[in-house]
């Protein structure tokens, strides 16, 4: 064991800053009176913004530190930036909403910072132990956040998320143990080295499969998705918005990192599992979403479905020529998803009323007449979810399908496009309600919501027309 | 600046200027908004004439006839294994459709002057956006770009039907959207597959790379056929070919008049144009193998569409089904794969746009007064509105293919091509399709007789019906002029098409 050096800390610099800031904020928040909680929110946002700048400055750098425990590369930096943007959106959505719903608490922002730092650690993990640590660090604040409104449904969501999440983490730990048993190491690079030079052991495959269960839970892949609709519906919407983006990114980042770097040698077995997982997720997510009348539940199933599309691109991860495209496509789509998803949730929160009112899709009737800009934004998000031009969702899906086709999984790509068609049906229902039915919705005017909606809508359209440099960044994030 | 001042860039995106202006206008200023939209589309029309003139100049250069002209080509996404270009160009296959689009848009806008009173602002925005999408479809030479425009046209049309349509508009709009999307997603997979195999999305490069892939077996004949089918699925739904036509009557009947005009006039042509530009060129062997089958479906469509038209009581539905029949002719001509057939098909696309566009406009004008389209309640209209009757008669005769009017030229050339086609392999298709021409005469004249002749019907009796006013005349007269022009002297139009068609067919291994 060597002493950590400066370069080790540089690798984890964004994470370190954010954790330190979060600890500091935890202390400072005690002295901030209840009526001035906007200060906590602002400080949390400042921390995220500062970390974001540091993180952006790390583009193009790559190195490993802490004896291979932590990794800095294009992949981790891309993910970090995405996670920090999610965190910023998460805070922008939270403050006004918490005031309105009378659930304003300073811990909210600290917990969110801890969760983001856990997610960032996940992106930089070079060892299964770190994966486990990061998983806990990101999950536990989320369990608390889900229950933060102290209403029965919110508490139910928190407990449900906690119990099932703990169960899933158990799978990760057990998987790690089995992998350690098979290879004698928990380092991702070490596992790869041993697994590719020794004959494949069943123990390793089972270990990897168990890890997949844990990650599958986090990204809400079918059949590990059962918690998603209930938790998304029960949790305060600002938490749901953050959770559905952040936890999904973290889950996918872990999944891609672990499988692409440690387990290419067992891809023959794993590919089939990924195939089935992805097909099931796309089919179940999209078909069940059709019958939802509550927008939170619909978006929950849509979030499940989108996990399926990203998984689809990752199916050929064992193919050396395709894995770079798979990872780049996955990252790019996660970015598209972040903007689209936060935008859509922001609109949902704009129309949400106390006591869970205003959350039915039918409540969107007449929105276009009264609030044309809001309706246009929501239409952009729905089109992006479907994968329609000119939106990021379309460019992202193009990328994902390319990865699947390059890997030779034509059948899976066909399932993907047909389920997209199915998804058009339920996303369009929101548009139909907004534009073609009569109603009298009342939208809240909150700067945070307006900001998020505007930024997300503009980014969703503008970045889709000029995706060149984002493609470049995503494609430089190759995992080795 | 150079990027923006390209004639084709300007032509495609100029309507966006109008959209921006309208966006910042007060929704209450309906008349001003209408004028902005109209002027925008008129300027676009002028730009299209500039494009035509430049096209003539480019075409007259020795050896350049039939090639792509006025190319605007810029690298768009050229990283990470993507080769996507911003690439617009025009050739003989698309020039007439581009002109038709630029021509029909102001006419449609003019027709909404009094018909659309609600949400005028949104209407005009969607309409101009639609024009951008349509222009892009006809001009894009990069498959990625083409796909974006292709899918994008769905969005404004969906809103046009869903917001300003008839009583069953929600159903029709969603059906239109999902039906069309079902086809395009298959095309998406095929586009990506081709892009991966040829490592480019731009069509000329792809055309250069494909023969080697076909001859080396990297894309075997079966795969080529599957790719052909995937593209054909998108286009056949759009055309629509029998048996994929069921969205069309719903969309047409529910759409507002201007929507119907553009839907029939231009959007359907995107399907036939897609076959022409992509299926015929990208998959030559599959095209030849599929020709008899497409001819069969086209023939069924011709007869089926005509027979169903005859049974309709709703005038708009009648014209909608007649489109199925008329576009069957276009498909038959395209897959005759000889110069007569293909050139006739291209001209017939324009003819159908003119005659069906005119019919929808005229039906819209009378509907505005009576709010019914039921054939039964009309009758004896000729005596009350002679000008309207005369123009309707010309449009009807043009639609049924009377010699001297445009429809005849197109259908005759197509049948000529189909009779002698080696690709279709049997003159029977043409022979049976010719019956379709007679059937067209039957249903069109039946409709005309019921509405305009005979004793006055319920509606005609009770309503104070007014004849066409000046604005309505201005709207339809240009269409009538072209009907006569193409009918009496089609040579200039064929001259525009011929070199490109020859070039296209010479690439086919017939």
Can you describe what's shown?
The complex is a heterodimer of chains A (480) and B (510). Helices cover 76% and strands 1% of the residues of chain A. Chain A has helices at residues 6-11, 13-30, 37-57, 74-101, 107-123, 128-146, 152-183, 188-197, 202-219, 227-234, 237-262, 267-290, 295-314, 323-351, 367-370, 372-386, 392-406, 410-436, 447-465, 468-475; strands at 63-65, 70-72. In chain A, helix 3 (37-57) packs antiparallel against helix 4. With 480 residues, chain A is mainly α. In chain A, strands 1-2 form a two-stranded antiparallel sheet. In chain A, a hairpin with a 4-residue loop joins strand 1 (63-65) and strand 2 (70-72). Chain A has one domain. With 510 residues, chain B is mainly α. Classes of the chains: A mainly alpha (480), B mainly alpha (510). At the A-B interface, helix 17, helix 18 and helix 20 of A face helix 5, helix 6 and helix 7 of B.
Summarize the structure.
The complex is a heterodimer of chains A (480) and B (510). In chain A, 76% of the residues lie in helices and 1% in strands.
Task: Furnish the topology, listing elements before pairings.
The complex is a heterodimer of chains A (480) and B (510).
Chain A: H1 6-11, H2 13-30, H3 37-57, E1 63-65, E2 70-72, H4 74-101, H5 107-123, H6 128-146, H7 152-183, H8 188-197, H9 202-219, H10 227-234, H11 237-262, H12 267-290, H13 295-314, H14 323-351, H15 367-370, H16 372-386, H17 392-406, H18 410-436, H19 447-465, H20 468-475
Antiparallel strand pairs in A: 1-2
Helix pairs in contact in A: 2-3, 2-5, 3-4, 4-5, 4-11, 4-14, 4-19, 5-6, 5-11, 6-7, 6-11, 7-9, 7-10, 9-11, 10-11, 10-13, 11-13, 11-14, 12-13, 12-18, 13-14, 13-17, 13-18, 14-16, 14-17, 14-19, 14-20, 16-18, 16-19, 17-19
Chain B: H1 7-23, H2 30-59, E1 69-77, E2 84-90, H3 95-111, H4 120-139, H5 143-152, H6 154-164, H7 169-198, H8 203-216, H9 221-238, H10 247-254, H11 257-282, H12 284-310, H13 315-334, H14 339-370, H15 381-384, H16 386-400, H17 406-419, H18 428-452, H19 458-462, H20 470-488, H21 491-506
Antiparallel strand pairs in B: 1-2
Helix pairs in contact in B: 1-2, 1-4, 2-3, 2-4, 3-4, 3-11, 3-14, 3-20, 4-5, 4-6, 4-11, 5-7, 6-7, 7-8, 7-9, 7-10, 9-11, 9-12, 10-13, 11-13, 11-14, 12-13, 12-18, 13-14, 13-17, 13-18, 14-16, 14-17, 14-20, 14-21, 16-18, 16-20, 17-18, 17-20
């Amino acid at each position: 064991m060597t002493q950590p050096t400066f370069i080790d800390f540089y690798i984890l610099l964004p994470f370190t800053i954010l954790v330190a800031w979060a600890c500091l904020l935890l202390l400072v928040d005690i002295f901030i009176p209840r009526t001035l909680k906007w200060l906590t929110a602002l400080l949390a946002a400042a921390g995220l913004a500062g970390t974001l700048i540091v993180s952006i400055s790390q583009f193009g750098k790559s190195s490993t530190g802490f004896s291979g425990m932590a990794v800095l590369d294009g992949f981790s930096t891309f993910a970090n930036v995405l996670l920090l943007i999610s965190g910023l959106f998460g805070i922008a959505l939270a403050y006004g909403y918490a005031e309105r719903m009378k659930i304003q608490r300073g811990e909210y922002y600290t917990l969110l910072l801890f969760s983001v730092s856990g997610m960032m650690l996940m992106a930089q993990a070079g060892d299964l132990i770190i994966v486990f640590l990061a998983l806990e660090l990101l999950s536990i604040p989320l369990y608390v956040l889900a229950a933060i409104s102290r209403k029965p449904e919110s508490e139910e969501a928190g407990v449900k998320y906690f119990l099932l999440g703990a169960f899933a983490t158990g799978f990760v730990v057990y998987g790690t143990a089995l992998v350690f048993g098979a290879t004698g190491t928990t380092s991702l690079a070490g596992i790869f080295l041993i697994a590719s030079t020794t004959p494949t052991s069943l123990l390793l495959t089972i270990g990897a499969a168990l890890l997949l269960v844990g990650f599958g839970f986090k990204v809400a892949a079918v059949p590990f998705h059962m918690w998603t609709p209930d938790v998304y519906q029960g949790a305060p919407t600002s938490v749901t918005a953050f959770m559905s983006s952040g936890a999904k990114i973290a889950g996918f980042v872990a999944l891609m990192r672990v499988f692409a770097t440690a387990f290419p040698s067992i891809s023959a077995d794993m590919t089939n599992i990924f195939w089935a997982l992805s097909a099931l997720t796309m089919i179940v997510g999209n078909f069940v979403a059709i019958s939802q009348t509550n927008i939170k539940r619909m978006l929950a199933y849509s979030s499940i479905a989108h996990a399926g599309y990203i998984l689809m691109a990752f199916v050929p991860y064992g193919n050396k020529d395709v894995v770079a495209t798979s990872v780049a496509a996955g990252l790019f789509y996660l970015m598209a998803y972040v903007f689209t998803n936060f935008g859509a949730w922001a609109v949902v929160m704009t129309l949400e009323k106390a006591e869970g009112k205003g959350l039915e899709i039918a409540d969107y009737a007449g929105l276009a007449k009264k609030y044309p800009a809001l309706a246009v934004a929501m239409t952009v998000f729905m089109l992006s979810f479907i994968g329609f031009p000119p939106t990021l969702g379309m460019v992202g899906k193009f990328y994902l399908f390319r990865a699947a086709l390059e890997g030779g999984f034509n059948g899976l790509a066909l399932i993907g496009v047909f389920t997209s068609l199915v998804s058009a049906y339920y996303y369009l229902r929101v548009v139909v309600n907004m534009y073609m039915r009569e109603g009298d919705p009342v939208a809240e005017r909150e700067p945070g919501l307006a900001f998020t909606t505007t930024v997300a809508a503009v980014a969703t359209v503008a970045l889709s027309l000029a995706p060149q440099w984002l493609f470049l960044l995503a494609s430089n994030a190759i995992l080795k | 600046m150079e990027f923006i001042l390209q004639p084709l860039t300007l032509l495609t995106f100029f309507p966006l200027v109008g959209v921006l202006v309208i966006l910042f206008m007060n929704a209450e200023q309906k008349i001003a908004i209408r004028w902005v939209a109209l002027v925008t589309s008129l300027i676009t029309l002028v730009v299209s004439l500039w494009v035509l003139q430049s096209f003539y100049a480019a075409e007259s250069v020795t050896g350049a006839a039939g090639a792509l002209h006025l190319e605007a080509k810029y690298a768009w996404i050229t990283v990470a294994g993507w080769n996507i270009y911003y690439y617009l160009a025009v050739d003989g296959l698309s020039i007439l459709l581009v002109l038709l689009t630029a021509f029909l848009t102001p006419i449609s806008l003019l027709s909404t002057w009094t018909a659309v009173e609600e949400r005028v602002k949104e209407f005009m925005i969607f309409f101009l956006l639609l024009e951008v999408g349509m222009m892009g479809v006809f001009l894009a030479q990069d498959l990625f770009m083409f796909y974006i425009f292709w899918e994008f046209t769905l969005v404004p049309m969906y809103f046009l039907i869903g917001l300003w349509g008839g009583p069953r508009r929600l159903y029709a709009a969603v059906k239109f959207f999902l039906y069309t999307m079902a086809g395009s997603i298959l095309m998406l997979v095929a586009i990506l597959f081709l892009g991966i195999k040829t490592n480019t999305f731009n069509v000329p490069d792809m055309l250069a790379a494909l023969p080697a892939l076909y001859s080396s077996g990297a894309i075997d004949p079966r795969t080529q056929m599957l790719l052909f089918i995937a593209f054909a699925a998108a286009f056949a739904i759009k055309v629509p070919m029998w048996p994929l036509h069921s969205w069309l009557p719903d969309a047409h009947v529910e759409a507002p008049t201007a929507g119907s005009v553009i839907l029939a006039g231009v959007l359907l042509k995107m399907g036939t144009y897609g076959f022409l530009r992509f299926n015929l060129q990208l998959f030559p062997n599959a095209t030849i193998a599929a020709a008899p089958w497409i001819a069969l479906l086209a023939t069924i469509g011709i007869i089926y569409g005509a027979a169903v038209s005859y049974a309709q009581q709703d005038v708009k539905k009648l014209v909608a089904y007649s489109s199925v029949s008329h576009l069957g002719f276009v498909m038959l001509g395209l897959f005759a794969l000889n110069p007569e057939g293909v050139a006739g098909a291209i001209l017939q696309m324009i003819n159908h746009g003119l005659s069906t566009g005119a019919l929808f406009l005229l039906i819209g004008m009378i509907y505005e007064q009576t709010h019914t389209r039921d054939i039964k309640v009309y009758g004896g209209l000729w005596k009350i509105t002679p000008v309207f009757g005369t123009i309707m008669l010309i449009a009807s005769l043009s639609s049924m293919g009377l010699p001297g009017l445009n429809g005849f030229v197109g259908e005759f050339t197509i049948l000529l091509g189909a009779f002698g086609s080696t690709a279709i392999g049997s003159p029977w298709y043409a022979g049976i399709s010719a019956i379709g021409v007679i059937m067209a005469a039957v249903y069109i004249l039946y409709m005309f007789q019921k509405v305009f002749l005979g004793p006055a019907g319920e509606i005609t009796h009770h309503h104070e019906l007014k004849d066409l006013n000046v604005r309505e005349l201005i709207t339809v007269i240009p269409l009538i002029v072209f009907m006569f022009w193409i009918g009496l002297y089609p040579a200039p139009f064929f001259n525009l098409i011929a070199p490109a068609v020859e070039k296209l067919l010479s690439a086919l291994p017939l």
